[in-house]
Amino acid sequence: MEINSDIIQENINKAKQGDQKAFNFLLDTFWNDVYGFLLLRTKNENDAEDITIRAFSRAFDRIESYDTSFKFKTWLITISKNIHIDLIRKQKSRIMHQTSHEDDDEVYNIADDAPSAEDILIREQNLNKLLRYIKKLKPHYQEVINLRYFQELSYDEIAQTLDEPLNNIKVKLLRARKLLAEIITNK
């Protein structure tokens, strides 16, 4: 049997009335055209088949809206092309969404430089040990260590505070550090 436009139109009319045989006829008649078109676009047999199935499903759901001034094949291919475009947009959107979330994760997963409770406890214990060692120094060495490392004064500020020459302060700090290192090493 030769398939001509009259037979196609007759089956379209039957399909509009819900005739299952007419749907099968249209599917069999136009499957290769729609599938071939999508295969060229997607270059993937599985994607082409999936989109072709969706295209026929959508076309048959909306067969009432088919305008007979267009060829049925053109209408089907247009539907399939639109489905393919929608899928590409969704994939791009998903990729962009994943990328932006990955970027967010990178931003939000920055290592926390704030000391933990354990770090604070260890630092306090070490500081207490250090203070005990410093107390073993002579008072004038304790004073320069305190001014320099705990009050963070410059050499000039220490010299002014203690009313001593700058060179004396430098020597005292050098001597205090050396004695403190010996105390710590001996413990």
From TrEMBL:
RNA polymerase sigma factor 70 region 4 type domain span: 128-180
Entry superkingdom: Bacteria
Domain RNA polymerase sigma-70 region: residue ranges: 32-93
Alphabetized UniProt keyword annotations: Sigma factor, Transcription, Transcription regulation
Pfam families: Sigma70_r2, Sigma70_r4_2
Keyword Transcription regulation: yes
Family: Belongs to the sigma-70 factor family. ECF subfamily.
Protein name as annotated: RNA polymerase sigma factor
